[in-house]
Amino acid sequence: MTTFSDLGLPEILLRALSSEGYETPTSIQAQAIPHLLQGRDLLGIAQTGTGKTAAFALPILERFAAERRRPAPFTARALVLAPTRELAAQIADSFRAYGQFLRPSVGVIVGGVSHRPQIDMLARGLDVLVATPGRLLDHIASGRFKPGFTEVLVLDEADHMLDLGFIVPIRQIVAKLPKNRQTLLFSATMPKEIAGLAQDMLNAPAQVSVTPVATTAERVDQHVYLVDGGAKRDILIELMSDAAISRAIVFTRTKRGADRVAQHLDAAGVGAEAIHGNKSQSQRIRALDSFRKGRTRVLVATDIAARGIDVDGVTHVVNFELPEVPEAYVHRIGRTARGGASGRAISLCDNGERPLLRQIEKLTRQSIPSTDRRSADQRHDDAQPARRVNRGNGGGGNGHGAARNAQKHPRREGPHREGQRPSGQRPANGQKRRAHGGGSNRPQASRPQG
Questions:
Q1: What is the pLDDT of residues 87-104, one digit of tens each?
Q2: 249 pairs with which residues across the strands?
Q3: Which residues does the annotated region (Disordered) include (predicted)?
Q4: CB under 8 Å to 218, separation ≥6 — which residues?
Q5: Both 247 and 185 in a single domain?
Q6: Which one, out of 149, 176, 247, 368, has a CA that is 20 to 30 A from the CA of 390?
């Protein structure tokens, strides 16, 4: 069995890993760390929960241990780009935990908060800067961050950044970095845009793949309830009456929908808070902290949070609405069954979402067990294809045509910059459009899951 000491990490990092209770590396750590210690670029295909944050954080910290020097003002020796504020904060926490005896200077740059504290932090110089692309570009444009001194670049959750419209900002940032840097790119999937980005950015990279693309977590028990659309809220309340659901994340497609579901749960006596892109950074931090500490039983989230929430002990994930992009289903249900635990994923699927369910089953190459909770009238209608198709073609009824449209033009939670919509993207239906880290609440497992 491989141990962290077998990977060639220095004693100062091994001591930190031991103090955190980590003994053996995960598959991606065992495969990636030797390449990165040699200074090679790396392309990693890995979903959240596989331990990839430690896979890149430990070699970066080893570099700092070997060459200790104070970074110049307004520079960072290592730059990590992340798609969401939550993920950025968790990555920073991982660096602090693994480097606790090295004491690197670590900073976070995200949108939704004041510029002034970030400018003051950058002025001191940083060993590690973790940032979301939009706000970082602001600081580059104002001259408050000088990217020309960066030695290592990490792109985490690259496919999620593609979904959020960040590819152009990423290319703008990369164009300003030194050409002789070390570059690491991690993605759960490899669409052609990410493959092109990797080809442009990486120099003869090592390639590591630790889990098949779009494979759902083995320890997640999945189930679908076929429901009438208007019955979803009542069925959700019924589900939450189960005491076995001690900590749950409920996913909706829209921010407004998340707020409505959270309010409905709260009114029914189920403690719930919503988290999405329209919430301020302080509101999101408070909601996550309350959820982590068990003061809130249910967190209602949009897909922007699907890869950014890393909380121990999530027993259930509920898809109140199925995602319009099937890959998002994999990342949603990956919020449970972490750190070797088991979990359950329940999806509420109305007739209009049946095409989305078929796309998910096609992507994950499995048939998800289901229970029919629809009314007798709805079951009768569903048994008559001609009538169903006629209503769908008429723009009403089961909404199959709308579901297909939604797949072609998905709403996206994340903007070109936090709080804004990408240029040229039109809002629909009055709405604005769309790792495991470690931190103070990392899983108590025998290896770092960050």
A1: 899 899 999 999 999 999
A2: 299, 317
A3: 363-450
A4: 337
A5: no
A6: 368
Alpha carbons 431 and 158: distance in angstroms, whole number: 25
Distance (Å, whole) CA 307 – CA 157:
8
Rounded-to-integer distance, Cα 8 and Cα 36, Å: 11
Count CB neighbours of 139 within 10 A. 20
Residue 397, in any domain of the structure:
yes
Give the 3-state secondary structure of 126-169: EEEEEECHHHHHHHHHCCCCCHHHCCEEEECCHHHHHHCCCHHH
pLDDT band at 191 (very low <50, low <70, confident <90, very high): confident
pLDDT in tens, 377-408: 777 666 665 444 444 443 334 444 444 444 44
Q: Domain boundary at 189, 209, 229, which?
A: 209
Q: Are residues 159 and 286 in the same domain?
A: no
Q: Do 390 and 261 reside in the same domain of the chain? A: yes
Report the alpha-carbon distance of residue 346 to residue 49 in Å, rounded.
20
| Same domain (yes/no): 182, 248 | no
Domain ranges, residue 54? 4-209
Average of per-residue pLDDT across 257-276: 94
Based on C-alpha coordinates, what's the Rg of the chain?
A: 22
